[in-house]
Amino acid sequence: SATPNLKLGLILAGWALIFLLSYKVKTTEVMEAKMWDPYEILGIDNGEKEETITRAYRKLSLKWHPDKVGKDLKEKAGEMMAEINRAHKTLTNAEARENYEKYGNPDGMQTQSMGIALPKLLVEAHTSPFVLALYGLVFGFIMPFYVGRWWYNSTRYQKDHILNPTMSTFFKNIREHISQRNLIELLTAASEFAEDDLKYRPADEAALKALVEKIRRVSQIYANDMFSAPKKFTGKDVWKANILLHAHFFRVKIDDGELADQQQQVVMTALTLVHRGLLQISTTHNWYTCSTLLMNISQMLVQGVYCYDAPLIQLPGITWENQPKIFKEKNLYSNHQLMRMTGGEQRKALSLLNDKQFEEAIQVAKTIPRLEIARVLLTVVGDKAITPASIVTLIVKVRIANAPNKIVPRGKGVAVADIEDISDEDTAAIENFVADFGKREKETKQTPPEAYCPYFAGRKDSQWWLSFANYQSGKLVVPPVRISDLVSERVVVLQFQAPPQKETYRFHLSIKSDSYIGNDVMQEVQMTVVDRSTLPSEPAIVDDISEPEEDSIAAQMAQLRGQQAGARRGDDESSDED
Questions:
Q1: For the segment 155-178, what is each residue's pLDDT rounded down to a tens digit?
Q2: Which residues contact 270 (CB under 8 A, 6 or more apart)?
Q3: Measuring CA to CA, which residue among 522, 516, 525 is closest to residue 373?
Q4: How far is it, in rounded angstroms, from Cα 229 to Cα 242?
């Protein structure tokens, strides 16, 4: 669009102006202000006696007296005599000399004024109307316009740079039990797709109709799902965004160059709206199923695939046409299944590809991460059992099985135990591990590998979501954790409150990629909540305070207090008898 080009032009012009000003500052001569010095005028040293000052004055008066010079030097001689007389008076008059020595001026302290040097063009009389017009344009129109525009845009957006009407639409229409297709329709109803760069234009009608026919043909053949217009959101902008997204999902080529550029912008905008908009609302409500579907949509956007696609289609050379044949003839569905084969079996399974395509597919398949859950531990730190309403700590260690470099994070100067080596009953070791975890986590941040996503216009780091949900209620126990620095292995520590009832609970531990399909792992975790009475009793506190020795000061003080108390009791008794 024209807006980025305009911004680039303004940025380049600004930098050019900065360089020009820097050059001017460097090459401009600075005229230093010369201080008035009577000694220098008379040609004598500082602190000379009055006789020397008078002698120098007379000598210079004879030289520069207007009657002693020619006509061509009379004007200069008059100026010089004025300076000579002033210098002589300053050094021979006690008050004037004191003022000069204190303030640098024989007349005493002078007021100092500061000013701004302006080009003559701005202050000359014949240019003043133009200068006033320029000031009026800048301060009366341009500056208020841009300040108002900035304020208007700042109030239009949320803190995550999503339009307020978009978040309102999402909040009103998202539901816990919503289909993936309806989530995509809700996504395309965002106000971002009605902005100038992406909104529907009548000139796009013909190209969009042709694109719809291609999408319907591909979706019916390979996805068994006929593409159709949204039923709830019927605007033209929504329809256009829906078409461009599904063309991306089904990898339908767009012949119109401008429309293809808009499609890439729609995809990147949609990914932001999923991560910072819809998923934020869903996790706030603790909706596990809805959040999982949104994570699936994130994978679809990054890879350019539909929700029912085989993971194998992420590899180069695998298309909508040959993937069903590979599955039907070789029973090959996923990348992990391919990597478990021998080299000969791989070549036979991908016989539809030529040698170059086969090599590229295998190289990419090796880089696609294969995640494993190495250890899961549920514990109450310091206790051997989980009791009602206690604070439970969930420790999960995940590992990339095919990581190229086995980088094991370790803290600096800290002896770090591996959670896999700690038993469930070793409460002291678990407590030490949790205590040191925060320090190690800050010291072991790593840069994740880049995801292979040829259909996504931009760099995308491979990241993961860890979700922990209650099996019975279908609710998230804690909001999903974004793992953004998983290179080889990572430990995640979460805390939540145990249910108040005593029973055995089942949870789903799910780790999903935000970039690849078919790489998700899930594990069922059980947690038994027992009564507090099953915990071992607290050890009794032994009172080790002994009686003071007889000859100690403490014993003598105690004895003295006892005698005084006895005396007081005797006095009380006698007074009662009286």
A1: 778 888 899 999 999 999 999 999
A2: 187, 188, 190, 241, 245, 301
A3: 522
A4: 8
